[in-house]
Write a sequence for this structure.
């Protein structure tokens, strides 16, 4: 595509793995001039056939960039290797590579030292969700707010864009917080199916639908925790208090034993609840457990 025949922001993309390729296709489909580079060049060939311009080196890609230089690589180390030797002065870097908050902060500082503007991103989507707004996928961004504003339209092509602050580590922190919560949910799902699995007369698909509905309904607990942490009153709005929940844990453990299920995915959280109740906070909701975790 001729860069001068479209008003769409030209995008440069380094990294054509599963996610990078999905991002590339969304920009091409939306008519953005796209320049791509990948360490293994053969992965760029299908995109070249679809209209992308391919270049031989990251330095060449960055040098010719007239819009955001998006990185979607394996990890922070591969970002450093890829950009080593590229002339970054005056360039707009948007790093969608999964990083820790500390890595993102260091990378932002590293980029600024080299004269580049920097935005970090945490992708809350899997490749099939890219370019499909109806799936609800989005990307957390943090770092330079002017850079986000300047390239927002292009960045919203693959998935929604949610800016979470000027601290470049905040996108990664939001990303990892959500994924950590997901890990806890997956642990619960695993335990629930283990409890049910000896029962040959239980329809798994029906149980799965019941479980999904229940998890969805319970997920609104997030708002109660936020309100309690904000007000400092951990009894605010409590409908199911810790003492009641901790007492019910005995039934959960007994049932796990009866069904031959190892309770290890639940017991650390139950122990936290027990400690908070023992400290005299049985009338609270979940917010006090946040304090317990932070003081561990
Ligand atoms: N795929 C997913 O479901 C998740 C969804 C949430 C966000 N992640 C993160 O996105 C980054 C890229 O993920 P990906 O799915 O594209 O990953 P791969 O398919 O494994 O591709 C990795 C690309 O990185 C290149 N690469 C690896 N090491 C180096 C290096 N030292 N120097 C230069 N490039 C490197 C690799 O190149 P090649 O192997 O094809 O030559 C791929 O382009 C990632 O941070 C996820 O956590 C995806």
């Amino acid at each position: 595509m001729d860069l001068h025949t479209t008003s769409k922001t030209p995008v440069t993309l380094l990294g054509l793995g599963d996610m990078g390729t999905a991002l590339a296709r969304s920009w091409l489909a939306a008519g953005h001039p796209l320049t791509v580079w990948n360490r293994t060049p053969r992965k760029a060939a299908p995109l070249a056939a679809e209209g992308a311009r391919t270049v031989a080196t990251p330095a060449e890609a960055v040098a010719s960039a007239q819009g955001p230089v998006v990185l979607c690589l394996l990890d922070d180390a591969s970002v450093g290797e890829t950009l080593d030797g590229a002339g970054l002065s005056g360039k707009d870097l948007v790093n969608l590579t999964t990083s820790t908050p500390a890595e993102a902060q260091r990378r932002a500082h590293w980029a600024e030292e080299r004269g580049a503007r920097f935005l970090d991103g945490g992708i809350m989507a899997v490749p099939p969700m890219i370019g499909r707004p109806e799936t609800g996928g989005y990307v957390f961004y943090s770092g330079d707010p002017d850079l986000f504003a300047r390239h927002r339209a292009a960045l919203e092509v693959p998935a929604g864009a949610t800016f979470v602050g000027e601290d470049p580590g905040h996108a990664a922190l939001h990303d990892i917080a959500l994924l950590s919560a997901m890990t806890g949910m997956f642990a619960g799902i695993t335990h629930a199916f283990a409890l049910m699995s000896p029962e040959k007369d239980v329809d798994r698909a029906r149980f799965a639908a019941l479980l999904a509905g229940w998890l969805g309904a319970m997920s609104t607990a997030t708002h109660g925790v936020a309100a309690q942490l904000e007000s400092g009153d951990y009894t605010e709005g409590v409908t199911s208090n810790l003492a009641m929940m901790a007492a019910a844990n005995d039934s959960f453990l007994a049932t796990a034993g009866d069904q031959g299920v190892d309770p290890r995915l639940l017991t650390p959280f139950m122990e936290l609840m027990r400690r908070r109740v023992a400290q005299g906070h049985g009338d609270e909701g979940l917010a006090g457990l946040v304090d317990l975790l932070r003081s561990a």
Summary: Residues 15-20, 38-40, 43, 72-75, 78, 81-82, 97-98, 123, 126-127 surround FVH (CB under 6 Å).
